[in-house]
Structures are given as structure tokens and as C-alpha cells.
Amino acid sequence: MAKQIDDEYYQLMRQIQAADFVLVELTLYLDTHPDDEAALQQFRQYSDYSRQVKQVFEQKYGPLLQFGVSNNPGPNWDWGKGPWPWQV
């Protein structure tokens, strides 16, 4: 039986994907423009935002990766409890 996944799951996942996409693009830009302070500030802003959204996601739905954002499995191993990729 497939797990029921609410709309917030997908909303948070889209926010994570968008923020991480911006971070990849800013990384590429900063590789060639390392002195651009505005781009560096944007990188810091999106890095913080990505981390915050991932923490919210993991608190509600479990770890995104086996080591999670917090890098602390806590008292239980929750890696296998979330929906599998083919279930979302």
C-alpha cells in the first residue's frame, strides 16, 4: 500500500530543489567571479534558506539523506521510514 503524502511534502521539496538549484548556479558563477560580494551574499542567503527548509522537511518527513541535515540519527534509525522515491 502506498503511503499518503500531503501537499506540504511536495511544496517543501520544490522549495529545496529551487534553493539548491540557485546554489549550484551561484557556485558556478562564483568560481569565475570570486570577488563579487553581491553574489557571495546571495550564496549565503540561499545557503541559510536551503538549510532551514531542509530542517523543516526532515522534522516532518524524516531525513532527506541517510545522514540528514542534522547529521544526527537520534535515538532511532529513521532512514527507511519515509516514502520511497517511486512513492512520491
Task: Summarize this entry quickly.
The chain has helices at residues 7-32, 37-61. It is mainly alpha-helical.
Q: Overview of this structure, please?
A:
The chain is mainly α and 88 residues long. It has one domain. Helices cover 58% and strands 0% of the residues. It is built from two helices and no strands. The chain has helices at residues 7-32, 37-61. The longest helix is centred in the N-terminal third of the chain and has 26 residues, at 7-32. It starts with 6 loop residues before the first helix and ends in a 27-residue tail after the last helix.
Work out the radius of gyration: 16 Å
Number of helices: 2
Apparent shape? elongated
The end-to-end span amounts to 13 Å
Order of SSEs: HH
State the share of residues found in helices, binned by percent.
55-70%
Number of domains: 1
Number of strands: 0
Arithmetic mean pLDDT: 85
Structural class by sheet pairing and helices: mainly alpha
- What proportion strand? under 5%
* Biggest pleated-sheet summary: none
Extract low-pLDDT stretches. Answer: none
